[in-house]
What we know:
The protein is α/β, with parallel strands linked by helices. It folds into 2 domains: 8-134, Rossmann fold; 148-250, Beta-Lactamase (2-Layer Sandwich). Helices cover 36% and strands 24% of the residues. It has 9 helices and 10 strands. The protein has helices at residues 17-28, 44-53, 72-82, 96-105, 119-134, 163-168, 173-176, 187-202, 244-250, and strands spanning 8-13, 36-41, 60-63, 88-92, 110-113, 148-152, 158-161, 206-214, 220-229, 235-241. Helix 2 (44-53) runs parallel beside helix 3 (72-82). The longest helix has 16 residues, at 119-134. It is elongated, with a radius of gyration of 19 Å. It starts with 7 loop residues before the first strand and ends with a helix.
Amino acid sequence: MAATDDPLSILHVDDDPNLGGLVKAYLERDSNDVDCTVTTETSPADALDRIRSGDVEFDCVISDYNMPEMNGVEFLEAVRETHPELPLLLFSGEETNDVAAEVIRAGLTDYLQKGMGTDQYTMLIRRVEHAVEGGGRFDPEAETELDGVGVVGSDERFEAADDTYASFYGYESEDVEGKHWTELHPEEEVEHIRTHVLPVVRRGGEWSGRSRGLRSDGSTFTESKMVTALDDGRLLIAVSELDDSKLASEEPK
C-alpha cells in the first residue's frame, strides 16, 4: 500500500488500448481529489505477470470483463490467489444483472458499469478511493457463503433476482422482479434497514450482517445479508438462509 503522501498506484487492464488511455488520462488529471498513477495493460496474462513480479506494489486493480484470454472475473480471481487483500474493481460494459452473481462469488471489491461521457471516470476514481480506504473485498458474515443475489433499482424495486435468492422468500425469480424490497421483510425489519443499513450503503459503504426475511406464506427466517451500492443508485444484495434452530442453540443460556 502506498504511503499516505504517495500517489495511489493503479493497474488498469482492458484489451482496448484507446479506453486504457482515456482511463489513465482522466484518473491522473490534476483536478481529481485523489492523486494516482495508472499503469495500463491490454493482456490479462501480462498483467498477472506484472503483479506477481512485485516490481510495482499496486494499491488497486481495475479490469474489463470481456477480454480474449480470460474474462475479467477470472483474471481478478487469479489476482486474489496471490494478493488476497488487494482491492479489485470490475469496470465493464456488462449489465449489472448479468455479472452480479460472479462479482459477489469472486469476492470482488466493486463493480462499475461503463457509461457515456466523462462522469463515468469521476465515478471510477471515487470507487477506487472507497475501495482502497475500505480494504480489499466484500466482507460477508464470517464463514457464511452468500448464495442468492438480487439487484434493487433506484426506485427501490427489484430489477433482478436469481432463482436461489427468490427461493429463500418462497417465490420464483420472475415473481420477485418488480417487488419493492420492503415486501420481503417484516415491518420491524424494514424500519431497521431504513435506519441502520441504507444510510451506510448510500454513503458508498457496505453493510453485512443478519436480518429477518419474510416468505410469501407469511413466515419469517433469519438471513445473512450483504448490501452494497452499485452505479446509478442501484443496490446489490446477496443473502443466504441461516438455520434458526442452530442459532437458538448457540445463544447463551
